[in-house]
Model the fold of this input.
Amino acid sequence: MAGRGRVLRAGHWVLIGLVVVWSLAPYVWTLFTSFKTERELYQFPVTYWPHHPTVVNYVQVFTQNPFGRFLLNSAIVTIASTVLCLFIASLAAYAFARLRFRGREILLVGLLIVAMIPLITVIVPLYILVRNLGLLNSYLGLIAPYITYSLPVAIFILTAFFREIPHELEEAALIDGCTRVNTLWRIIAPLAAPGLITAGIIVFVYTWNEFLVALTLTSTTDVRTITVGIALYRGEFTFPWGVISAAVTLATIPIMALILLGQRLVIRGLTAGAVKG
Amino acid sequence: MAAPTIARPSAGTQTVRRWVSGQLTESELAALLILPCFAFLAIFAIYPIVNAFWTALHTLRLDQPHLGMPFVGLRNFAKALGDADAWHAIRVTLSYTAVTVAAQFVLGLAIALIINRMERGKNFVRAAALLPWTMAPVLAGQMWRWLFNDQAGVVNDLLNRLGLADGQIIWLGVPGLAFFAITVAATWGAASYMALILLAGLTGIPDELYEAASLDGASPVRTFLAVTLPLLRNAIMVSLVLRTLGALQALDLPFAMTGGGPGNATETFALYIYKNTFQFLDFGYGAALSVILVVIALTFAGTYYRVLTPRD
Done:
């Protein structure tokens, strides 16, 4: 019996190991690649740990290519979209969680449908709209659509969080003569902080990783984001896998850091809808 | 209220003042709070959706501006019915969806069960499993293109070392293999997401149910089928719907990994729509195809909902 238990436990650890390897191995390979020289990349047999580690690829990312600019653009667009989206979504989520009004259900269903529409369907009208507004190749032209397409998911997450804040706290504050603004600022906001962080991280990840909208609405390197920059990158003679790997690594680091810091909150946000159904 | 010496305040100022002092009715307050959100959705989501349906009924070719934008009724849809490439792209998309969602579900469920039974180190493994989902699909496509590289790729090297292959397999140059490769990459990217939703569902199942099952002498398989799966229904439905909708509009990953090739072997429907729109500049036809994609997506969502919702 004890022997069987030990075998089972060992088997479990093997499976756990496989999960970790399967999840992380592609990252590790990309990281190794980013430190290899052009010659070692195509060496036979294939090497794993770089034999002649070099940072030349990382230098190239910033010196011979506009990847630094792309990273900066991604940061500007993503941070601005996330902050504005959270602000607008929290107002709406407060209404959905706390207030009774006509059309509430219809609006929620409408949000769900907007969330289900494929981006490829709206991309052409969006392109024409943004062009007519004179916002092609501008940060604002990316930020406004990004805010919009993140609103449904942000509102769903925030509504779920706001519902959990006890109603009594708010009523007590209102009875004590606290104004609505003060109640929102002093009572709701601090309690809603975990929800805001959760929604913020998820919106940040979606926006940072977005490709189709960024590809369509930008054509100059001035405002191009990192996903588009990497996808459109071609070398002069051979495909520059070392540089690509370095750029992918750099583009992945901010997201990784965010996820590792806020893991618990992200998982709670991702699963909030799923568990309650 | 306000000082009477000030000129009559505008309606807007009055509303704001009444909000600050808590005198707004609930409906008025709700309308005020939802207004900014609704404005964005109306301009950048609802208008483009309606516009796409409208454009689908017209001829609009950016490469032939002299044509203008004449109304053609359902002619774009009729063209789609007779377009072999469109049907091919739909078939690729449906196979891609079936294969990736099934693989993601099986693998995701396995990962969820493995993590759920952990006691120590759970947070680390969960974080590791979450990471693939956070990588941009277009970057994951680039990364996997390199992993599947025929000469210098790690996949071929490992297969050769394990004795499972001899020589270099040209993964991205042969139709069937290229399709297989993009489904592997897609499964890697989204199985973890599936796993996390299912894991939350597993955590919500009370231990007493398992204890009762084991007291009744139920086998692990029977317990899984009779206790675990039914109680996971909500989590399963949400994860299947989300992943199916994602797979049906897959564009980033094949774009970066194969560009739809070799030939058009991995050209998904979204990629085909993109090509018609931005390479052939046939906006009307592209819009009609994208309306067809909406119909396909909503049909899938509706079917899941009907099949997986418990009937009372």
About this structure: Confidence is low (pLDDT under 50) at residues 273-277 of chain A.
